[in-house]
Specification:
about 325 residues, alpha/beta, ornithine cyclodeaminase, domain 1, Rossmann fold, 2 domains, eight-stranded parallel sheet, seven-stranded mixed sheet, 12 helices, 15 strands, about 20% strand
Length: about 325
């Protein structure tokens, strides 16, 4: 063996593989909310390289495969995410994802991690950041249209930023509604209208392709987190709802990928990051606001980096080099 070769082998970094259970354990909501705030500001300030996501239809299962890359100052990420509406009947989440985190200086793969929980929690964290900036400070009643994983994470995240006292849950599946209500401490609503009437915050987290939220139901001054309908021909909100002030995570994505925005022909007032960064004034108090969330790759990049850094901190200096302590080497 050449002199020094053993040392080089001993300290050769390996790629970490982080499964769903480990990601859930390592990702803290408070750190994630702050990370999402930073991600949105950096995105709107032009400090992130992020092309529009590539989408491929999966006709056999009426699903979609999305490819989402992003480059930030300290992370290079690609996320593969599938949306398959029939998955709950198979005992699987509708949205499944895998994230590859790379070193932005070298391109070396640092970690491959299950991205399903990251996707669900960071989406809700972004809605929480938006609610903190755009919803009334006293907002206490939430309507949740949808009863899947995103409904659960949104209940968790909104309680972290607003004094939520009641969450009304509706979807087309009463059994799912009852289960979601039990797990989130919410109450089941008999109809979407019943859930929405009088609510301070409304979250649409459905797989709908036609509107489930009508503007006529909205309380003046309500805040709406419109999270579903990620395709140009899909809608969750009708034209009356979209006639309110519209804020988006990405103006370009909203204009090219959101059926709610495209179909209604509305103008996007601002990106959320522009408001958070002081580049645009916030809406006037009492204004009904629609936040159209498409989900940004930069959000995945910062969330994945948080998970990776937590894994390294947990393992300590020896684990950084040798991947000791529970994470499985990959490749």
């Amino acid at each position: 063996m050449r002199a020094g070769a053993g040392a080089r082998e001993r300290f050769t970094p390996v790629t970490l593989y982080l499964d769903d259970a480990e990601v859930r354990r390592l990702l803290r909501l408070d750190a994630l909310i702050e990370g999402m705030r930073r991600a949105l500001v950096e995105f709107s300030a032009g400090q992130v390289i992020q092309p529009l996501r590539a989408a491929m239809e999966m006709p056999r299962v009426s699903g979609i495969l999305l490819l989402k890359p992003a480059l930030t100052r300290d992370a290079l990420v690609t996320k593969l995410v599938t949306l398959v509406p029939g998955n709950p009947a198979r005992g699987l989440p509708t949205i499944l994802a895998t994230i590859v985190l790379m070193d932005p200086e070298t391109g070396r793969t640092l970690a491959v991690m299950d991205g399903t929980w990251i996707t669900a929690l960071r989406t809700a964290a972004v809605s929480a950041v938006a609610a903190e900036a755009l919803a009334p400070p006293e907002a206490a009643v939430v309507a949740m249209l949808g009863s899947g994983a995103l409904a659960r994470t949104h209940a968790l995240a909104l309680r972290a930023v607003r004094p939520v006292q009641e969450i009304r849950i509706w979807s087309r599946n009463p059994e799912n509604v009852a289960r979601c209500a039990r797990e989130t401490g919410g109450i089941a609503a008999a109809s979407a209208e019943q859930a929405v009437r009088g609510a301070d915050i409304v979250c649409t987290v459905t797989n709908a392709t036609d509107p489930v939220l009508r503007g006529a139901w909205l309380k003046p001054g309500a805040f709406v987190a419109a999270v579903g309908a990620p395709r140009p021909s899909w809608r969750e909100l009708d034209d009356a709802a979209m006639a309110n002030l519209v804020v988006a995570d990405s103006r370009e994505s909203a204009l090219k990928e959101s059926g709610d925005v495209i179909g209604s022909g509305v103008t996007v007032y601002a990106e959320l990051g522009e408001i958070l960064g002081g580049m645009k004034p916030p809406p006037a108090p009492g204004r009904t606001v629609i936040f159209k969330s498409l989900g940004l790759a930069v959000e995945d990049a910062i969330a994945a980096r948080l998970v990776y850094e937590a894994a390294l901190a947990e393992r300590g200096a020896q684990g950084v080099q040798g991947a000791a302590g529970g994470a499985k080497p990959h490749g």
